[in-house]
Amino acid sequence: MMNEERRKAYKMRAQIVKALAHPLRLEIVELLAKGERCVEDIAKAVDVKRATVSRHLTVLTKADLLNNRKEGLNVYYSLKCPCVMDFFGCVERVLKEQLEEKVKLLRKWQTGKGK
Fold this sequence. Notes:
This protein has helices spanning 4-20, 23-32, 39-46, 50-62, 84-110; strands at 37-38, 66-71, 74-79. The chain is of the alpha+beta class. β2 and β3 form a beta hairpin. α3 (39-46) crosses α4 (50-62). The radius of gyration is 19 Å and the shape is flat.
């Protein structure tokens, strides 16, 4: 049986993965990996309304993935842990392996060996 501490750790991991589980949030995180940005700049860069970007930034902030600071009327966001980009690299390796397997299967099928 799993102890309570491990269960909490899995729950915390799941909250982070859940916060990242949206294409626009992934795009925002990748943008912030290049440096701090204000909401307006993020909205322009991802070509989405500011209100939509703000909602997604809130999700990422609640998951403790972002830092933010206010300067005048602007709020600036940055990645709290840039190592999250390592996770993206891992995901891309998985996608590459999946694609390679699909290509192999297609080639077998095209040559009649997959029948």
